[in-house]
Input
Amino acid sequence: MPAQPSPSPDRAPDAQAAGPVPLTLARGRGAVAKPPRHLADLPMAGRRAAIADLGQPAFRAGQLSRHFFGRYTDRADEMSDLPRDARDALARALLPPLLTAERELVCDEGTTRKTLWRTFDGALVESVLMRYPDRATMCVSSQAGCGMACPFCATGQAGLTRNLSTAEIVAQVVAGARLLASGDVPGGPGRVSNIVFMGMGEPLANYASVLAAVRRLTDPVPDGMGISQRSVTVSTVGLVPAIARLAAEHLSVTLAVSLHAPDDELRDTLVPVNRRWKVAEVLEGAWSYAATTGRRISIEYALIRDINDQAWRANLLGSLLAGHLVYVNLIPLNPTPGSKWTASRPEAQREFVRRLEGHGVPVTVRDTRGREIDGACGQLAASVQ
Output
């Protein structure tokens, strides 16, 4: 059974407030080192307290936060509004380095950039920046690896290493924002407009860190980055209790459900957590989320040749979704090396779309960006490992 979410750090004492030195967190049979405390781990009140503990006036928290969330820098020498004799100490205490770029791959004439990050303890995670004419989207990881064990997913095949901290998630977006602001991405200086939690990991299995990251990313500067909640998508394979909990937060984020099969027999294989929460339960949770938030549900469906792309499954899916506040995002599978799973034939994809539209269900086919740069989630990390 997947790990159950723990309390949000914004609503309970934050264990990371203990200090900048990495702590250890007992989990399973051993001890796992925690990332050093970062200001993005803390709400503004926690940052002020941390600043005061360093003997500095509390308003320095706003100044330091504005550099990180508004100017995308953690370099002490660029913080000219802070006292020279305090800059280094403040940066060391609340802006420690969390992610180091291990590799970066670029395609689509420079507008798609995939970065493999190494965390402080050597774990590998991926993020992708995708710039379009009308938006710039960051796809971020919430875990190093994934424990959901979906057999067609490179991350699922690797297993779970650990949850990412709030700051490790936020740092991926800040890195993308820094790159856009510098003008290094074709199209001139820009900003991150959309965030999708569709990288490595199951976001709702790391509930506390993901929720806090959403708040940091959407709170206005200097509390956070000021990105609209309506431009954030959180995906899940269907952790029903966590979906209900997210609905109760009354956020305006989009919920994306990675369904991949409309029938329990096949979904038990493709998405093993289905053995705990069946298709009907997952969809009921999604409809409750839509009713509570008013947000349209995104159904993610990876089309796999001769596995889940039959016309009768399209009809079944359409009948389950018809009349609900929903749309389907069909994903041509990006096969992983050595896998028996591959993308559907074009004619099967077209027929699948036609059948869904026949039920009145809106459907799009995802842009297959990044295919030539190990674009599928987890592929780049697997190649390095």
Observations:
- DSSP finds twelve helices and 14 strands in the chain.
- Residues 1-29 have pLDDT under 50 and may be disordered.
- Residues 17-94 form a domain with the DNA polymerase; domain 1 fold (CATH 1.10.150.530).
